[in-house]
Amino acid sequence: MSGQDVVSEASDGFAARYGHPADGVWSAPGRVNLIGEHTDYNDGFVFPFAIDRRTAVALGARGDSVLRVASTFSDESIEIAIDALAPDAVSGWSAYPLGVAWALGEFGADLSGVTGVDLFVASDVPIGAGLSSSAAIESAVALALDEHWGLGLDRPTLAKVGQLAENRAVGAPTGIMDQSASLLGRQDAGVFLDCRSLDAEVIPLGFDADGLALMVIDTKVEHSHATGGYAARRASCEAGAAAMGVGSLRDLGVDDLERAASVLDDETFRRVRHVVTENARVLDTVRTLREVGPTGIGPLLDASHVSMRDDFEISVPELDLAVETAQAHGAIGARMTGGGFGGAAIALVTDALVPVIERVVRTAFDERGYGEPVIFTVRASQGATRER
Ligand code: ADP
Ligand code: MG
């Protein structure tokens, strides 16, 4: 489905559900993280981009002060009075859109005078595939409500609104990367984000101009250890920072690794080395894009994968196979992306190689007896926007 299809689906779905046309439609994309993994909660650098898979939300004004949400995702419509909004008052999938409405108030928006709205959501961002359908719905709803209610919050603030909704209303301890990519992304550009200062810079990727495609190879391996593994990695990073006498691993550079090797136990050292070198790789990626162009970033993507596999130990055999097969058949670079323990790998390839790599990866998975991967390409796309 293309972006325009989900806009029509939201608009048509709104009319069918509520019996009158919507007043406007907004949309926001999912994201892929090009490089910078497990650096966000260490105050470090990430470099995601917004993709050409979007969530659209159609909005219609109401005369009262009720919010009502519905989605193609579910048959139910959920309602709440605006003055009853609270993190504990919303649940299920509606915690995302209604949590955003609550969180707008936490960032200074005055919700006492606004009137209610009906929302209808449609999306072609795959859910739970690591492309952040959660940030897409949060960002689409945040922009829609901000513009409809005339709240005047800027996009970096709307990203914080989405994060707060996810942290408090949904209860997922996630960083701000996904919402920043979804709100700040641009066509054929990435969002270089400093997770300490929250400064964000849009950096041209030049993939389109150079005839490059970014393939996503979703292994469909479930993140069975994901929650526990994620918590354990965070704890190792905190322990490493404390033992090194710094507030966060962001404060360490590659020059500090020799001392880290003598201070830390082997496992903690390797966790720390991943984060420190990954931060350096993000900075190198941005520099290389500016000075050389996208064909120069391959070794950085490859090194990021090795670091996640060997030092951070969050890869799985399916991800390694996807990465190695893509690399062996001419990918410019490849790495696992996302939190790890399953999920997807990405490969930067020339457009002509896409079908070749798709075929060899499928064959390799089949030969090993792994489940069928889902393989598609993404293009770096415009962030959240009003569509109609
Ligand atoms: P992802 O990796 O896709 O972000 P999450 O578990 O973080 O996975 O978020 C997925 C959840 O977000 C869904 O289970 C649902 O509750 C909510 N969600 C995402 N997209 C939609 C949608 N189009 N309509 C309703 N809920 C959605
Ligand atoms: Mg998510």
Structural class designation: alpha+beta
Mean pLDDT: 96
How much of the sequence lies in strands comes to 15-25%
The tally of strands reads: 12
CATH class of the largest domain: Alpha Beta
Pfam families: GalKase_gal_bdg, GHMP_kinases_C, GHMP_kinases_N
Domain GHMP kinase C-terminal: 297-364
EC number: 2.7.1.6
Enzyme class: transferase
Describe this structure in words.
This protein has 388 residues and is an alpha+beta fold. It is built from eleven helices and twelve strands. Helices cover 41% and strands 22% of the residues. Strands 1, 2, 3, 4, 5, 6, 7 and 12 form an eight-stranded mixed sheet that branches. A four-stranded antiparallel sheet has the order 9-10-8-11. Helix 4 (155-170) packs antiparallel against helix 5. The model has no long low-confidence stretch (mean pLDDT 96). Adenosine-5'-diphosphate (ADP) binds next to strand 5 and helix 3. The site of adenosine-5'-diphosphate has 16 residues, from strand 5 and helix 3. Residues 297-364 form the GHMP kinase C-terminal domain.
Short description:
This protein is of the alpha+beta class. It contains 11 helices and 12 strands. The longest helix is centred in the C-terminal third of the chain and has 26 residues.
What is the fold's blueprint, element by element?
Elements: H1 3-18, E1 24-35, E2 45-61, E3 66-71, E4 74-81, H2 95-106, E5 117-123, H3 133-149, H4 155-170, H5 177-184, E6 189-194, E7 200-204, E8 212-218, H6 226-243, H7 257-263, H8 266-291, H9 298-311, H10 317-328, E9 333-336, E10 344-350, H11 354-368, E11 374-378, E12 385-386
Parallel strand pairs: 3-5
Antiparallel strand pairs: 1-2, 1-12, 2-5, 2-6, 3-4, 6-7, 8-10, 8-11, 9-10
Helix pairs in contact: 2-3, 2-4, 3-4, 3-5, 4-5, 6-8, 7-8, 8-9, 10-11
Bound molecules: adenosine-5'-diphosphate and magnesium ion.
Protein name: Galactokinase
Family: Belongs to the GHMP kinase family. GalK subfamily.
Domain Galactokinase N-terminal: 14-59
